[in-house]
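Re: How this chain folds, sequence and tokenised backbone to follow

Filed under: protein folding, tokenised backbone structure, sequence and structure records.

Contents: The amino acid chain and a row of whole-number tokens, matched residue for residue.

Body of memo: The sequence and its backbone structure tokens, given next.
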Amino acid sequence: MSFAAMMLVAAALDVALGWPARLYALIGHPVTWIGALIRWLDMALNDDDAGDFPRRIAGVITAVVVVGLVAGVAFALQWLLPAGWLEIVIGGVLAWPLLALRSMYSHVADVVYPLQNNDLAQARHAVSMIVGRNAAVLDEAGVARAAMESLAENTSDGIVAPLFWGALLGLPGIAAYKAINTLDSMIGHRTPRFEAFGWASARIDDVVNLIPARLTGAVFALVSAAPRKAVAVMWRDAGLHRSPNAGWPEAAMAAGLGVRLSGPRVYADRVADEPWVNAGAPDPTPVDLQRGLALYVRAMFVLAAVLLVLALI
């Protein structure tokens, strides 16, 4: 159970420090290192003139190389750690940059404050930093929805899932998950360039997020003002989402706060006519987005308590 204690140390460091700009300027960030490897493999293996099958094979090779290399380095580092409390502390320091508790809160708070001050232009700019849709066409409700959806989905991807795999498998678990998630975010898109090449990365990401996404939804429901309703709506509406996983935390947060999420949205190259999650509820307001951040904080306390119990066991 030292892995759970290790993740608790990592989470505490991230909440306290985030990833300092000075440290980023000095050494970058593990995700940027992984991203550089993915970009290199994309340029080397993803041939625009090849057919779908060879590009799928190239994508499988890319995923295996990236995840295998990252997990291998993490395994070697964990093997070299001294036993006892030093293993927990040093392992926690190494896992620290692979979490996003502080940055998740900060990014959404950056949307809340201009919305509350009726600065729609600044709110659009802030939300464009965390979502892929065209923020320039969003009204106040659209900005609030986009930010709340990002908060719900990325709590699963950026916090619960890495903590889950880290508590289960230690440094190799959290590092391999981060590699998979970075692969999906960079090449797991349904675009002409990545439809075939990123197929394997997107499918692997779906699999490793199956349990964490549902855990995230359950925790959101638990700490909401209406747990039973949140569970019922999550069970009913999660499958409406285009993602097999994102609908669970989004539906739980929507029902827990009494708002609707998802729905039609505009991306740079297309309009996605998505169904509503918790349809019939009103659009979120800036106040609701602030309540969403409070819900997020309560959920983080629950996760910390679970890690503490696991560590003590």
